[in-house]
């Protein structure tokens, strides 16, 4: 059945699959709290059975993260309502679990000898989706619905920073981590959830006497300042030239080529927000941000694939249809109720993202002769007569992994601090 879908709708070209074979994971830098957390993560991964696939660990973490975030959106659909204390607690726990499980998937891959390019792609793909849901949940926890401009800035700031990190990776060939990076940001959001649980949503509206601003505004100013500093560092790498020929990207394309795919949905989001006759964003902020977030999530995944396969980043994508529908509806004076079009767009972009991710995983699994959520590889298409069998490391004597006759590059470097 899976082969039928792959033949009907292949998502990656043969050239991309060949580039994937040659990909090698490259990262540099260490954040502030990561050395401390590495002790916990190394302890945690030892508690995971050797038969558990790394991708399954990441997926479980993502599901927990998404469910807890959706729970908060259910209780605070306009980002104005105060949710029960246990909901904020569940969001904090859900994000911590996702952080922990996301951090040990690479370690589990090395323990079981099952590192593949799919692992890196799956990891970053889940991160892009998590960023969307955590971004919306953060706005709800701080009850930003009363200040839609602040909510808009907070959410799109989060997804843009994540995109820029992979943009500079596409240019330089190396994923660079700063002193204040994703781990620190996640801990900051966890603290935010806990503060909402303990202090209530009124805390974020309190005025700070010396500056005359609310706690909410000060928090956004601080986070935006840190994000601006991070993005500035990314653009310094981007503008100074890439790893490709004549300072181009790893694919030999312009270093600015990934700019349009991310700016297109953000500009549309701003235009639709400001021109909506019924206050679409103000009245339905969670649905609005999720719709644009799913669109940007797919674009980010395509950027990650472009980097790993050293291929060109396409300018347009089917995920842009969702935002485009809202724009066209406004252009024709809301011929169809904007709320209905928003739901149609959200369903479309979500289906488009899920379908794309599933097809990419199926195609890579078929190409590498592996399973996505099972440690044991598929038997080689050329048979198992070659006897090329390797045992998983660290005492997994009963677990064998059959590989294809030709050698494949491992996606994750064998270094102490893996992501």
TrEMBL record:
Annotated Pfam families: CDP-OH_P_transf (PF01066)
GO-annotated molecular function: diacylglycerol cholinephosphotransferase activity
Pathway it works in: Phospholipid metabolism; phosphatidylcholine biosynthesis; phosphatidylcholine from phosphocholine: step 2/2
Membrane-spanning parts: 50-73, 85-101, 150-168, 188-205, 217-235, 255-273, 285-305, 340-362
UniProt EC number: 2.7.8.2
Reactions catalysed according to its record: 1,2-dioctanoyl-sn-glycerol + CDP-choline = 1,2-dioctanoyl-sn-glycero-3-phosphocholine + CMP + H(+); 1-hexadecanoyl-2-(4Z,7Z,10Z,13Z,16Z,19Z-docosahexaenoyl)-sn-glycerol + CDP-choline = 1-hexadecanoyl-2-(4Z,7Z,10Z,13Z,16Z,19Z-docosahexaenoyl)-sn-glycero-3-phosphocholine + CMP + H(+); 1-hexadecanoyl-2-(9Z-octadecenoyl)-sn-glycerol + CDP-choline = 1-hexadecanoyl-2-(9Z-octadecenoyl)-sn-glycero-3-phosphocholine + CMP + H(+); CDP-choline + a 1,2-diacyl-sn-glycerol = a 1,2-diacyl-sn-glycero-3-phosphocholine + CMP + H(+)
Family matches, as InterPro entries: CDP-OH_P_trans, CDP-OH_PTrfase_TM_dom, CDP_ALCOHOL_P_TRANSF_CS, CHOPT
First-listed, main subcellular location of the protein, grouped into a coarse class: membrane
Record's subcellular location: Membrane
GO cellular component: cytoplasm; endomembrane system; membrane
Top class in the EC scheme: transferase
Key word Electron transport present: no
Keywords: Lipid biosynthesis, Lipid metabolism, Membrane, Phospholipid biosynthesis, Phospholipid metabolism, Transferase, Transmembrane, Transmembrane helix
Similarity-based family: Belongs to the CDP-alcohol phosphatidyltransferase class-I family.
Protein name as annotated: diacylglycerol cholinephosphotransferase
Species whose genome carries this gene: Branchiostoma floridae (Florida lancelet)
Origin organism lineage: Eukaryota, Metazoa, Chordata, Cephalochordata, Leptocardii
């Amino acid at each position: 059945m899976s082969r039928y879908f792959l033949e009907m709708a292949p998502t990656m070209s043969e050239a991309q699959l060949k580039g994937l074979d040659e990909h090698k994971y490259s990262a540099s830098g260490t954040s502030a709290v990561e050395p401390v957390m590495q002790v916990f993560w190394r302890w945690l991964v030892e508690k995971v059975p050797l038969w558990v696939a790394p991708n399954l660990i990441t997926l479980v973490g993502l599901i927990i993260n998404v469910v807890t975030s959706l729970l908060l959106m259910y209780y605070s659909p306009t980002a104005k309502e105060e949710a029960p204390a246990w909901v904020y607690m569940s969001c904090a726990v859900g994000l911590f679990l996702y952080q922990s499980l996301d951090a040990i998937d690479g370690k589990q891959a090395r323990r079981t000898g099952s590192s593949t390019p799919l692992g890196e792609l799956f990891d970053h793909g889940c991160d892009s989706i998590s960023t969307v849901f955590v971004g919306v949940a953060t706005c709800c926890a701080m009850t930003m619905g009363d200040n839609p401009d602040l909510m808009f800035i907070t959410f799109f700031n989060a997804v843009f920073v994540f995109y820029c990190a992979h943009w500079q990776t596409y240019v330089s060939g190396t994923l660079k981590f700063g002193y204040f990076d994703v781990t620190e940001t996640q801990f900051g959001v966890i603290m935010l959830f806990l503060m909402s649980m303990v202090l209530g949503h009124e805390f974020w509206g309190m005025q700070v006497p010396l500056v005359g601003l609310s706690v909410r505004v000060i928090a956004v100013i601080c986070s935006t300042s840190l994000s601006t500093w991070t993005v500035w560092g990314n653009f310094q790498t981007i503008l100074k030239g890439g790893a490709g020929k004549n300072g181009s990207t790893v694919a030999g394309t312009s270093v600015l080529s990934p700019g349009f795919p991310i700016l297109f949905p953000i500009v549309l989001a701003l235009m639709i927000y400001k021109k909506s006759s019924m206050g679409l964003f103000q009245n339905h902020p969670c649905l609005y941000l999720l719709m644009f977030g799913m669109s940007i999530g797919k674009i980010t995944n395509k950027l990650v694939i472009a980097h790993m396969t050293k291929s060109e980043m396409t300018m347009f994508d089917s995920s842009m249809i969702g935002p485009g529908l809202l724009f066209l509806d406004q252009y024709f004076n809301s011929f169809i109720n904007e709320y209905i079009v928003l739901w149609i767009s959200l369903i479309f972009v979500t289906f488009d993202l899920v379908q794309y991710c599933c097809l990419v995983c199926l195609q890579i699994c078929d190409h590498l002769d592996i399973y996505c959520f099972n440690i044991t590889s598929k038997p080689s298409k050329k048979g198992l007569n070659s006897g090329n069998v390797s045992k998983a490391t660290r005492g997994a004597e009963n677990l064998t992994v059959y590989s294809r006759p030709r050698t494949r590059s491992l996606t994750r470097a064998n270094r102490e601090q893996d992501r």
